[in-house]
Amino acid sequence: MRNLAAILLAGGVGSRLNILVRHRAKPAVPFGGIYRIIDFTLSNIGNSSMTSVAVLTQYKPLSLMDHIGDGSSWDMSGRSRSVKIFPPKTGEADWDWYRGTADAVRQNIAFVNSATSDEIMILSGDHVYHMDYRDMVSFHRKKGARVTIATIPVAWEETHQFGTAVIDDSSRIVEWEEKSPRAKSNLASMGIYVFDRKYLIALLTESKEDDFGHHIIPRALEEKVVYAYPFDGYWRDVGTIQAYWDANMDILDSSSGINPGSWRIMTNINAGGPLYDRPPVSVAGRAHIKRSIVSPGCTIEGRVENSVLSPGVVVKAGASVRNSIIMHDCIIGEGAQLERTIVDKEVLVGTRAMIGIGDPGIANAEHPKHLYSGLTVIGKRTVIPDGISIGTNCIIDPMLHAPVFPTEVKSGTSVTCSKP
What we know:
By secondary structure, the chain is α/β, with parallel strands linked by helices.
């Protein structure tokens, strides 16, 4: 299957990740210390010996494009293997921003037409999982399917977030519901499709419908040619702040099923970082590290417990970081205390600052569906003042400095450029 081609959809806004996607595309969000979310799909592609991949970008794609580069970090460059990045062709008479997943593929139908494989895979760039796509393609061929959808059981209370399938004894999908509030099945789509290439071309050229889940799959279902590929490994849609935090914490739990190392997840460690190799981790004599990921270039003088630290993080003496995610090149000042906090890149946390301490039951007033469990999120390159107290379920905008902050940020509130 070395000539198998794929289209990787990486253009979604990911608005439920709030300020983490203020300046980047959702698949480019750092994850698990040294990785980015898109690394999991790109690594699955490379590890499945696929040869041709089109990455469809749209929303704030620069950091994502820089990260992907020529694809060599995932062994996807050279004469026989390639990653091509396709931004939307805005400004042309017959093109516009992608209106949905199917529309995105339709606008790049030339890639599908030029592929030499009998099948085309459609993949999402914002899920955390490990899969050998060759097994799914073999299943597709064995069933004589024209469309195969990877599926996984989810909790019933989560079915409204997914397309769900009712299947018969042969795994053929007989009913399909897209994000139904009262789903008949908890067998959810993973956003991974195998299409017969010619059938996909016919579906996209015969209609102008925009979305696979809402439009294309129901149309194919009428012809009784759609099958569900069963997946029973670790998979998580990290499209919310809560799910993103949960998945990072899963890496620290050996029983969770996620293991980027054994999965052979690859990344571009040089993208957007210093033009030199990070030094080894430096741990001071009185430092304390427990059940955490501490990436290269970190300097630890204080306490780090049950946390994920990206490269270049400094935790100064007397500081404590617990149950938190700290991204690249942040500095946690002396005596600062962080609990259940997600800190974006290059943030300076002042001395004796107290963050994430308070009543976790007070949801964020502006975004109650984004922050409600006690997490606090701090935006990129913000400077947190010395001695400040910031509660739970708080959102601190990127690029802020001391004059913007009140003396205390109460639980459930936000600090923005325009509203101190």
